[in-house]
Amino acid sequence: MEENVVGITLALARDDVKIIWYLLFNSALAYFVNLTNFLVTKHTSALTLQVLGNAKGAVAVVVSILIFRNPVSVTGMLGYTLTVFGCKDINNVQRGKVSVAYNAADLYAADLYAADFAP
């Protein structure tokens, strides 16, 4: 961490009062990001929050490519494409559009079957 952060901030605030408004705006945004994360977790699940984080990363990369013309490798594009399709697939499973291949009874029967052949 930089030394004398408070002193540097006060010196900048003396030169330009707008920095105080920037800091307040940044603090408010950080608060609302944390509040949103809490509410998403409360009303959905931690998995949904993780999927949203992955989708946000992919969107940030696309925006950075479009605005700043940042180069992306073929491997990177493949990874972001898989991320987007994974988010879409998890969304479809959570909404019930796709059935999960195994239910609890099938998994229990498979465990019993495997136990018959265990040494």
UniProtKB/TrEMBL annotation:
Keywords: Membrane, Transmembrane, Transmembrane helix. One of its GO terms (cellular component) is membrane. InterPro entries: Sugar_P_trans_dom (IPR004853), TPT_transporter (IPR050186). The chain crosses the membrane at residues 19-40, 47-68. Pfam families: TPT. The keyword Transmembrane applies. It is a multi-pass membrane protein. Residues 17-87 form the Sugar phosphate transporter domain. The keyword Repeat does not apply. It is found in: Membrane. PANTHER family: SOLUTE CARRIER FAMILY 35 (PTHR11132). This is Sugar phosphate transporter domain-containing protein. It comes from Gossypium aridum (American cotton).
